[in-house]
Write a structure and sequence with these properties.
Blueprint lengths: L1 E2 L2 E2 L33 H12 L7 H9 L3 H19 L4 H11 L4 E3 L3 E2 L3 E6 L5 H14 L13 E5 L4 H14 L10 E5 L14 H8 L3 E5 L1 H4 L7 H18 L2 E7 L19 H5 L7 H4 L3 E3 L4
Parallel strand pairs: 5-9, 5-10, 6-7, 6-8, 8-9
Antiparallel strand pairs: 1-2, 3-4
Length: 310
């Protein structure tokens, strides 16, 4: 019979014969007085090699157990043990395991339907004075209160707003006005958490009191950093700095399941006509985002790119 591409032969009237693998034709060869059973170690190695070609890290012991009982179910179990070990050691998934893991992580859910998925890294880019902060404060209030944002349903959750751009009084007035506009009797206490650089403790900025450590402790559904350049000025200098900072963001996002949105500014517009920014009406949106200030990795490394239009 044929098994795993290796031909096993039985000479009439004789016991099992050894396979001579030294030649190209794999002709079975009778060796009188030196007949080797088919369960010989070398034959098992040959069979294991055939299986290991498709499952390179399968344990030999598990394979031997499977073929010893002649059960395909046992072989499938050995393969399952192999993929389980890879998942535990390296985080490698089969398609089925990946689907299950995605359900466990809750991926696919939306903080703001059609706008902001959970556990994503986003960047909002716009000119200074355009209204980026009021827009994000309104979004933060809506998510914290569980009311629609600009007509989009939200999944209520805790929001942490780190403000490096506005004063404490300005933020307080803005929230009051937004709550009035949204017909909320009171701001969403407990769900909306506000931090302002102008009233930060003196130890802020040390290793254990950084913005990311704050997000770690709060564990919000959504954290907003307004703005990226004020919190992490070195991210604008080089792509390597931006990539390193975003990697730290993603580590925290993975730990606490938060989405993080950073606010960023555009470069000063060029006076040359041929360097005018792309129009958002029918233009190349990604090319428009290239006018964001600083390193290109800030755009390439973001999951969600947003540009407010008023």
């Amino acid at each position: 019979m044929d098994k795993e591409g290796i031909s096993f032969a039985q000479l009439e009237g004789e016991g099992p014969t050894e396979i001579d693998t030294r030649g190209d034709d794999l002709e079975p060869t009778k060796r009188e007085n030196h007949l080797v059973p088919l369960d010989d170690e070398r034959c098992i190695d040959l069979q294991w090699a055939g299986t290991a070609s498709s499952h390179p890290s399968i344990e030999r012991a598990a394979f031997v157990e499977a073929v010893s009982v002649g059960s395909s179910a046992h072989l499938e179990q050995a393969t399952s043990l192999d993929t389980l070990r890879l998942k535990q050691n390296w985080g490698i998934y089969t398609p089925g395991q990946l689907k299950k893991r995605a359900r466990e992580l809750g991926t696919g859910k939306q903080i703001i339907e059609g706008v902001l998925p959970e556990a994503t890294l986003g960047i909002l880019v716009g000119d200074s004075g355009l209204g980026k902060s009021p827009l994000l404060y309104q979004a933060a209030v809506c998510v914290a209160a569980g009311v629609p944002f600009l007509g989009c349903p939200v999944n209520q959750g805790r929001v942490l707003y780190l403000d490096f751009e506005n004063g404490v009084g300005e933020a307080d007035t803005l929230i009051d006005r937004l709550c009035g506009h949204l017909e909320l009797s009171n701001p969403p206490e407990g769900q909306l958490l506000l931090w302002n650089v102008n009233d930060a403790p003196p130890k802020f900025g040390t290793l254990s009191h950084s913005a990311l450590e704050m997000i770690r402790e709060v564990k919000p559904s959504w954290a907003i950093i307004d703005s990226l350049g004020s919190c992490y000025p070195d991210t604008e200098e080089k792509n390597s700095n931006a990539s390193e900072t975003f990697q730290r963001f993603r580590t925290v996002m993975k730990e606490c399941g938060a989405a993080i949105t950073v606010v960023h500014h555009t470069r000063k517009p060029s006076q040359r006509r041929d360097e005018a920014p792309e129009s958002l009406d029918g233009g190349d949106l990604r090319q428009w985002f290239r006018q964001a200030r600083g390193a290109g990795a800030l755009i390439n490394g973001s999951d969600i790119l947003t540009r407010p239009r008023f």
